[in-house]
Amino acid sequence: MFESAELGHRVDKATFRDAVPALRAALLDAQFELREKSQFPVIILISGVDGAGKGETINVLYEWMDPRYLTTLAFSAPSDEEAERPYMWRYWRALPPKGRIGVFAGSWYSDPIRDRIAGHLDQGDLDRRMDQINRFEAMLANEGALILKFWFHLSKEGQRTRLKTMEKDPRTAWRVTKESWTRLKTYDQLQDAAGHVLRMTNTPWAPWIVVEGTDDRYRSLTVGRVVLDALQKHLAGTRDPGYPVAPPLGLKHDVCDVLTALDLSHTLDRKTYETELAQWQGRLSELLRSTAFAQRSLIIAFEGSDAAGKGGAIRRIAAAMDARQYQIIPVAAPTEEERAQPYLWRFWRHLPRTGRAAIFDRSWYGRVLVERVEGFCSEADWLRAYAEINDFEHELQESGAILIKFWLQISDEEQLRRFREREKIDFKRFKITAEDWRNREQRPAYHAAVCDMIDRTSTGQAPWTIVEAEDKNYARVKVLRTVCERLENALRPRKNKDKD
């Protein structure tokens, strides 16, 4: 994949001098239009071999464009805070909002390539990581992002020559470190690993652009022209959507109606409720104080019918926890800051570190529920969201997080009774709004959306727990018991399968 980047591309001084003014002006115009429209973000990945001009290229972009709307993000070894969260957490937090350009010096590709060279990843593990990255970039592209991935290449001899030249020049000597020479020794391994990675992730929605790094003028003009061309096409709306959405849903009779099949008659008398509540709250407190949990995190997502008792269940969980150990995240309509990012961004930013818990009152499932029913996103958007959410949740699980998802269900009659009760009680009036009443008119649409959601996203790694919430006592105990049982199962030491 690197052959064409070893052909000795060069641009003479006169050609460079004549081309730059018009290119700079066009880049500034495109950047201004990007900022004015604020319809999508631009993500530029700068990767490649040492000495190929990665840092110089970033400096050129800052010189040729308005630096107020450029952000450079450099990534090295994860900090303690980053290491205690899922691998992609720090990259999600760094994504630029709509209307801005984010330049990534080092990216989600750096660690997998480095680990493959060091022998920490075998070929199968590397391929699985690349599959995850492809789906991540596809999601960003489907959210509208323009993704440009540059790999700056030098031949082995070219890299050695360039490092020596830079080392002799006082202006660039600081760029050459012991690590630069050490990495030259693994040049062949880098080419093998990087070549494989680039082939696997060179997609229509996020292509790789391999640029020869020998000649500074050629490299700068090439990058500037690629960025300009891609920006102009994206602004004109002529980009190729590239990535297919999820397949259409089946006919209604093909979908299991898990809500209608529920037995909502379950109840608990007051005395039994108080006994079991104390029992499970005590058990939960013990589990969260255990040494085993110190290396894990807990994420609980609550969804359910309006007035189904999500808040009451959350309060009973929180009562068993140290206030320093958890955060409750109420999810409402996205803010202006959140609308400028992919829809999962606002949930990534709240993921807990190890030894902590996050409780989401409503969650990322809004994309396939309220946004689907109310028409806040297109059919293609919510159809592809099922796969994106599954990927998100599986990534949480693989990082060591314990994810528990609840859907609380009540009958239409019980919901109406609770609505009317809320209107009559002063301290509950804030819980009932005109929006709640309006949503009751959409009950069939929400019913179908919930059934589809559970059918498509209740996976072996992240199953849904459906709670019969007609009786609040029963629902609260079931929620607490489920949390404890899932925690116990996750924290239980695994038996050595090789032991007789």
TrEMBL record:
The protein's matches in InterPro entries, at most eight in alphabetical order, are given as: P-loop_NTPase, PolyP_AMP_Tfrase, PPK2-related
A Pfam family found in this protein is PPK2
Q: Which GO terms describe its molecular function?
A: polyphosphate:AMP phosphotransferase activity
Q: Where is the Polyphosphate kinase-2-related domain?
A: 12-233, 268-491
Q: What GO biological process terms does the UniProt entry carry, in alphabetical order?
A: polyphosphate metabolic process
Q: Which PANTHER family match?
A: POLYPHOSPHATE:AMP PHOSPHOTRANSFERASE, POLYPHOSPHATE:AMP PHOSPHOTRANSFERASE-RELATED
Its name, as the record gives it, is Polyphosphate:AMP phosphotransferase
Source organism = Rhodocyclus tenuis (Rhodospirillum tenue)
